[in-house]
Amino acid sequence: MMNPPRSISLSTYRATHTLKRSVMRDLLALVARPNVLNFAGGLPADENLPRVELQECLDAVLTRDGARALQYGAAHMPLKELIAQHMHTRGVECTADDIFITNGNQQGLELCARLFLDGGENVAVEEFTFTGILQAIQGHGAQPSAISVDLEDGMDVDELADWVAAERVATEPGSVATRSRLIITIPDFHNPLGVSMSAKKREQLAEFAARFEIPVIEDSPYSPLRFCGDTIPAVKAYDTNDAVIYLGSFSKMISPALRLGWLVAPRELIPRFTVLRESLDLESSQLIQRTVAEFLARGYLEPHLEQLNAANFARRDLMLHALERELSGIAQWTIPDGGLFIWLTLPEGTDTEKLLHDALSQNVAFVPGFAFAADGRSGRNSMRLNFSNAPREKISDGIARLAQVIQETANLRESTRIETLDSRGFA
Ligand SMILES: Cc1ncc(COP(=O)(O)O)c(C=O)c1O
């Protein structure tokens, strides 16, 4: 009999070999310390989770459905129908047959990566993007290609069109193929940038995705979190050629712990997703699907969103006022109409990773911008601030403490610069 190996070489683990550890995960461990004011995460405030309503729905489901709610089972049809109705409010014409239930958008991203990527492809993403998107791409041996973002109206669709054109290669006379396989965008209340893509750009994106036959993944967990401004239809609403797959999630609009979401895809892809998912977790929990369906069927979602969005709006304003008071003329930041994040940029040369250590000593946390950089380098002078989670009464003071750390760092840089000039005899 062969002896078992005493240790397994790390290189045998393909996933850990290819995946960089998420900076965010390391950071979340730090910010979990008591007393740290958390502007880093992407969580709703505890008091804005609909605990009572979910409990009612859970009780009702267990009483009515009994063992059926506790068994394995196929996707819950009433939930798919309710999701299809929700999609109509986003301008998307679909039925329950176009919907595939997932365990949240992270799973949707992984399934799309499994479907479209074999390794070696280039995937267009916003220049700063959700780390889970980068992980899904890199976990399948593909590379992100950074596309610029206008902080007023989203991804630069002209640059994207040029990228798609450049990725096309002649195969044989008269025919072309694309090396690239995918575009992944976060058009609504972008994480981390806070910006939303304009309707015009969405239309252009859907049009050239169809023209160049390149699939678009529309990752949209934040769209129901609008607290001001006009509603914008989903990119999928402009998709007349089945080029767009829409990812939606209950994480941000009800509760992240549900781990429930969906995707809307061309109908013939739905069985493919079923197979791709089998090796992950087979299916989503019957109990959770039925509880969420009950929540939607009872009409609990609209009043909950009204309350949640009003609370987030108030917190956003508190943060914006504090930023204006403390950092006007020093930093620039985005003003989101919804979602959870503000993107703040400091003068060139500032290093927000270093700044984070000083901020943590003042018990304030944020995420340094480079954590979201598609090229792995940019964003050293930027940071993402979350406004939905910190207690209202602490936001202003937290920004004041952060501003103080920023000022001290700037003063230190200035004095180091003067000393350097002095020592060279230039000043
Ligand atoms: C843009 C984006 N996509 C996907 C996810 C993952 O969402 P879910 O909880 O639905 O898996 C997040 C979570 O923060 C996100 O910000």
Can you describe this structure?
- There is one protein chain.
- The chain has 427 residues and is an alpha/beta fold.
- The protein has two domains: 12-49 and 303-423, Aspartate Aminotransferase, domain 1 (Alpha-Beta Complex); 51-300, Aspartate Aminotransferase, domain 2 (3-Layer(aba) Sandwich), CATH 3.40.640.10.
- Helix content is 41%, strand content 14%.
- The chain has helices at residues 14-18, 23-31, 51-65, 77-88, 105-116, 131-138, 157-167, 199-211, 270-278, 286-297, 301-327, 352-361, 392-423, and strands spanning 37-38, 99-102, 122-126, 143-147, 149-150, 154-155, 168-170, 176-178, 182-185, 216-219, 244-249, 261-264, 332-333, 341-345, 364-365, 367-368, 382-386.
- The strands form five sheets. A seven-stranded mixed sheet has the order 2-12-11-10-9-3-4, with helices on both faces. Strands 13-14-17-16 form a four-stranded antiparallel sheet. The protein has a two-stranded parallel ribbon with strand order 1-15.
- α5 (105-116) runs parallel beside α6 and α11 (301-327) packs parallel to α13.
- The chain is globular.
- The relative contact order is 0.15.
- Residues 15-20 and 420-427 have low confidence and may be disordered.
- The structure holds pyridoxal-5'-phosphate.
- Pyridoxal-5'-phosphate is lined by residues 42, 104-106, 130, 132, 186, 191, 219, 221, 249, 251, 256, 261.
